[in-house]
Amino acid sequence: MLKQRHVPIRTCVACRETDEKRDLLRIVRLQDGTTAYDSKGKMSGRGAYICASVKCIAVAKKQKKLERSLKVAAIPEELFAALTERAAEAPDVNAATPVSDPTA
Questions:
Q1: What is this structure's pTM?
Q2: SS (H, E, C) 49-97
Q3: Residue boundaries of the structural domains of the chain
Q4: What is the pLDDT of residues 41-60, one digit of tens each?
């Protein structure tokens, strides 16, 4: 019998839903106070997680959720653009899969 591997769980700063760490996007505040997207999830610094959905990114931007979580004054517009682009590439695991119509 194989031992079940521990799967780290994180919470999205925008919608507050929990998910596996690998399914969320990580934004990190570096030592010099700048923020960056951490694609590997291994950079040192204070991290915050957000769902890979355009909706959650928009909520986080509008309500300044990332700024509050990372304790920074502002998040660069380029970072939000990169997150939105990354979310558009990622398959939406929460979306319902379309079912073919048997009557068609």
A1: 0.82
A2: EEECCHHHHHHHHHCCHHHHHHCCCCCCHHHHHHHHHHHHHCCCCCCCC
A3: 9-89
A4: 999 999 999 999 999 999 99
